[in-house]
Structures are given as C-alpha cells and as structure tokens.
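User: Just a sanity check before I run the rest of the batch. Below are the structure tokens for the first item. I only need the designed sequence back.
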C-alpha cells in the first residue's frame, strides 16, 4: 500500500469513527444487550491488547489494525478464559453482540492512542474523539487551542496546519494528564469509566 493509499484509507476510517462516536453509545451499538459489567471487562481486554500491539513501537497507531489485529486477538483471549468466566459465557451466548462491542471498544482505544501520539489526519476526528471519548472539560481545553492555532496559520498549506494542530493538541493532552495524574493514580480499576 502506497503512502497516498494509506493516507486516504486512514482518513476514511477516521471520518467513520468520528461519525460513530457522535451518534451511538456502546450500549446502543450492541442493542442494549451487553451488560455494563461485561463491557467493563471487554474494555480492559481491548486496552491491554491495543497497548501490547503498539508497545514495541514498530507500528504507528492506525484504525486499520482494529479489525485485522485487535478484534481477533481479543476474541481469542475471550475463548481462552474458560467456561466459568461470565465474559466467556456471555460471548458464547451472544457472539454477534460481543464482536460489535469489541470492535467499538477497539476503535475507541486505537482512536485515543492516535490522538495521544499525534498520529491523526483529520481534525474533526481528533475533536470528536476528545469530545465523546474523554470528557467535556478536556474538550473545553482543546477547542480553544484548535481555534487559536487556526487563527495563527490560516494562510499556509494543510500539512503545516496539521503539524501545528497535532503539536498543540498533544501539548494540551499532556498538560491535562499531568494535572490529573495524582487523581488517576488513586483510582482502582473498578472506578474507571468505560467511554459511552
């Protein structure tokens, strides 16, 4: 796949993801069949697999890896859980809903990875990911930053605008994470919210 083909494919995937974030919650995507406890377990598994996949730094975060790598890895992990696991039992009874939930969670996890590393092509995708997948307070920080950058670089090429926006969004995200780190360090896994 050439660089242009990758760029076009990734832009399409980002636009599709942004549209889904704005329109549907995880509960709606799964027909309200998947209980919150199962969604929490699936979210942890998806996050672990996504981090493991990107850990060695050999690949940049990309939404094309969601369907080809992350979802199959999570589904294999579910199969290995054993028959006493509630998550495995649910997946056996509701395979379609489980796959939809894993796909949606993986898309969200990879999107967050893309945003945090500045590996995105579409500003609408970045803003939608922050707005719908993180929190309103952070969205309130990012949007003014985006507007300020756009006001400064209005007469330059698109690639320059993207570079400056990526840097600014990454800076705002880092500041937010550093400011909240003490709070996050005191939370156990049971208190983390699954993005909906």
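Assistant: Here's the designed sequence for the first item:
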């Amino acid at each position: 796949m050439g660089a242009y083909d990758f760029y076009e494919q990734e832009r399409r995937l980002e636009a599709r993801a942004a549209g889904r974030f704005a329109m549907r919650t995880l509960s709606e995507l799964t027909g309200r069949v998947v209980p919150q406890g199962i969604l929490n377990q699936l979210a942890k598994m998806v996050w672990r697999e996504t981090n493991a996949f990107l850990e060695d730094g050999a690949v940049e975060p990309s939404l094309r890896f969601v369907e080809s790598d992350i979802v199959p890895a999570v589904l294999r992990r579910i199969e290995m859980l054993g028959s006493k696991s509630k998550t495995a039992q649910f997946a056996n009874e509701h395979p379609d809903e489980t796959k939809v939930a894993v796909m949606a969670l993986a898309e969200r996890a990879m999107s967050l990875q893309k945003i945090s590393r500045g590996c995105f092509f579409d500003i609408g995708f970045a803003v939608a990911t922050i707005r719908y997948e993180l929190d309103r307070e952070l969205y309130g920080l990012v949007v003014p930053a985006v507007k300020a950058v756009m006001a400064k670089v209005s007469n330059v090429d698109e690639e320059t605008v993207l570079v400056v926006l990526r840097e600014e969004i990454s800076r705002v995200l880092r500041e937010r994470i550093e400011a909240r780190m003490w709070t996050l360090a005191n939370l156990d896994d049971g208190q983390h919210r699954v993005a909906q």
